[in-house]
Amino acid sequence: MSQSTVIKLAPKSIKQRMSKDEVKALLAYYQEITTKTGEQLNWTYAQSAFPYEIRETDTSFYLKGTNDKYYGLILSIGEEESGGYIKITLPASATNGDKGKANELCKFLAKKLEAELHLFNGRVMYFYKR
Questions:
Q1: CATH code where residue 101 lies
Q2: 3-state class (DSSP) for residue 90
Q3: Is the whole model's pTM more than 0.70, yes or no?
Q4: Which residue, 16, 79, 82, 92, is most buried by CB atoms nearer than 10 A?
Q5: In this structure, is residue 117 part of a structural domain?
């Protein structure tokens, strides 16, 4: 059974709607900063921090795992009346490593966007000023 976490863009978030290109730019930025962290530590951290290959579809991104510890994640973008959202879904065949990486990635995205994060376990984290 698949699980999902949702990053909701609240009225006080930096943006109320996200385009596919903006999400792609944030993913590229995440890869860039993890690569720089690895360079500072003299370690190939980029492969461990983001062990996925990004594949685009019309409405979403499929992050395919690049080694046996990771299967993949699905990122989709949508809109509701109250604002936009980014949904990260773990397929039924996802590993525990995928869930950990999904948690790291969704927290990063929610902090960058100052959004509301609904985690896999049902808890909510608020990254915008209330």
A1: 3.30.310.120
A2: strand
A3: yes
A4: 16
A5: yes
Residue 35 in tokens? 């690569």
Q: How far apart are CA 47 and CA 34, in angstroms?
A: 9
Mean pLDDT of the chain: 90
pLDDT in tens, 48-61: 788 899 999 888 99
Residue 111's pLDDT is: 95
Q: Is residue 130 part of a domain?
A: no
> Could you tell me if 110 and 42 are in contact, meaning their C-beta atoms sit under 8 angstroms apart?
no
Q: Is residue 100 part of a domain?
A: yes
Name the domain count of the chain. Answer: 1
Q: Which two tokens stand for residue 45?
A: 């951290």
Partners of 87 in beta bridges: 6, 76
For residue 49, what pLDDT is reported? 80
Give me the pLDDT at residue 46, please. 67
Distance CA 89, CA 97 (A): 14
Query: Which phi-psi region, left, alpha or beta, contains residue 17 (left: φ > 0; alpha: ψ -120 to 50)?
Result: beta
d(CA 44, CA 38): 5
